[in-house]
């Protein structure tokens, strides 16, 4: 055998060797699912989970186990719709369903998202004041401007990479859990054994948790981000045009979504258990915001717990505000059939970026009004829970419509799990409404 032949053989053998696992390479394969899941734990969500743990203790932990498969199903369906059609949810609805219905949904989404942005900015400002002091309103403006400007002017690929690295800030809540004096037997019981109290406050809390974990803006964001693939990579087309890519793309979407939602629920559960072990255990049940939760931790779990809790609020806000503003811009832009996409230059999609900027500006402005956006943290989650129902029904109908999905209509367990998620959200909203008459 010649030297050249040996060299070729060695090269072929080297190519067949399994590559060494590298976290950085694996991290690069994750995308919309990871960012969507992490942004779900925004300051609004942190406030809701802290409130739930402080008021109800370990017994509310079961909601995280329940919501995990429901979140995975509805988010995977959202991702598939975007990747198959090359359009987001609103882009498909405006072509196949009532434009008036879409207009109402998009209007409510924009309102809910801007309130959520305002509340998140307020929470971030309060957390920063806990850490370093200073004028809170200046932090509101600073964080708002940075978040909006980054979306408009940063290179898309670089910006998405920044968002992905920001997800690591959520491990602050695992660190906070580590310093809490947790009764793990009670915590495990609360996770695996559902306990329901038929009262208005309890049922409202359930809807708030479901509204935080299964939020309409997450559906719009993940579907639109999957549709961005063809704008980012010229070799990629909607799967209706390149069906041969479907298997690998669906596998990627599923893995990305499962990891993102598991990460989201792990962090949410950490916050609930931390609040239950510290605040609920000491009778501190009147927590209203995430910043109050951070401040209340100091005399119980120490300054370290307060600091990492507050840092987590700032980091998650920087991750969530772009998703909130971006999902509103995608929904309105696709519904109006504008050119949309963060991969486009600002001059190529002026109307899209204008809506994105408007959402951020309104969110900042609400912090200057008599309306206290911080107190809206909990109720914004409830609003999202109610709004999620019609959006989820539309998404499920869309996923089975052949005109839209062609050969890739959603079938089997994923389809029925999607409807189960929709039914669970509907029942929780109805239970909350009934709770007001109990």
TrEMBL record:
Compartments it resides in: Membrane
Chief localization: membrane
Residues crossing the lipid bilayer are 56-74, 101-119, 131-154, 161-182, 202-221, 257-279, 307-330, 350-371, 377-397, 417-437
The domain of life is Bacteria
Q: How does it sit in the membrane?
A: Multi-pass membrane protein
Q: Which InterPro entries match?
A: NRAMP_fam
* Assigned keywords, A-Z: Membrane, Symport, Transmembrane, Transmembrane helix, Transport
A GO term from the CC aspect: plasma membrane
Which BP terms in the Gene Ontology apply to this protein? Answer: iron ion transmembrane transport
Q: Name one GO molecular function term.
A: cadmium ion transmembrane transporter activity
Please give the name of this protein: NRAMP (Natural resistance-associated macrophage protein)-like metal ion transporter
Identify the species of origin.
Rhodopseudomonas rhenobacensis
């Amino acid at each position: 055998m010649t030297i050249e032949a040996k060299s070729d053989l060695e090269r072929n053998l080297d190519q067949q060797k399994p590559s060494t696992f590298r976290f950085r390479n694996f991290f690069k394969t994750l995308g919309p699912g990871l960012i969507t899941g992490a942004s779900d734990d925004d300051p609004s969500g942190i406030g809701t989970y802290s409130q739930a743990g402080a008021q109800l203790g370990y017994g509310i932990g079961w909601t995280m186990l329940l919501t995990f498969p429901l979140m995975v199903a509805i988010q995977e369906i959202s991702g598939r719709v975007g990747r198959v059609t090359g359009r987001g949810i609103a882009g498909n609805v405006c072509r196949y369903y009532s434009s008036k219905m879409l207009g109402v949904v998009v209007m409510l989404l924009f309102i809910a998202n801007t309130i959520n942005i305002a509340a998140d900015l307020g929470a971030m400002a309060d957390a920063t004041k806990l850490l370093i002091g200073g004028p809170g309103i200046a932090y509101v403006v600073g964080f708002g401007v940075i978040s909006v400007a980054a979306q408009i002017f940063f290179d898309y690929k670089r910006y998405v990479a920044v968002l992905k690295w920001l997800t690591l800030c959520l491990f602050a809540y695992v660190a906070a859990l580590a310093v809490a004096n947790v009764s793990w037997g009670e915590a495990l019981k609360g996770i695996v054994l559902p306990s329901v109290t038929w009262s208005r406050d309890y049922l409202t809390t359930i809807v708030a948790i479901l509204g935080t974990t299964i939020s309409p803006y997450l559906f719009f964001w993940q579907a639109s981000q999957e549709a961005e693939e063809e704008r980012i990579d010229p070799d990629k087309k909607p799967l209706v045009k390149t069906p041969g890519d479907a298997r690998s793309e669906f596998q990627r979407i599923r893995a990305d979504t499962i990891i993102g939602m598991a990460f989201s629920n792990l962090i949410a559960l950490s916050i609930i258990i931390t609040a239950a072990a510290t605040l609920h255990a000491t009778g501190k049940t009147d927590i209203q915001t995430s910043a109050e939760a951070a401040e209340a931790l100091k005399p119980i779990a120490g300054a370290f717990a307060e600091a990492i809790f507050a840092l987590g609020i700032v980091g998650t806000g920087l991750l969530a505000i772009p998703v909130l503003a971006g999902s509103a811009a995608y929904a309105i832009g696709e519904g109006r059939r504008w050119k949309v996409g963060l991969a486009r230059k600002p001059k190529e999609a002026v109307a899209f970026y204008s809506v994105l900027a408007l959402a951020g500006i309104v969110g900042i402005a609400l912090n200057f009004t008599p309306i206290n956006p911080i107190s809206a943290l909990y109720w914004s989650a409830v609003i999202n829970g109610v709004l999620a129902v019609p959006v989820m029904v539309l998404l499920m109908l869309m996923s089975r419509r052949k005109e839209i999905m062609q050969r890739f209509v959603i079938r089997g367990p994923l389809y029925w799990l999607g409807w189960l998620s929709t039914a669970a959200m509907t029942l929780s909203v109805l239970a909350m409404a009934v709770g007001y008459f109990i």
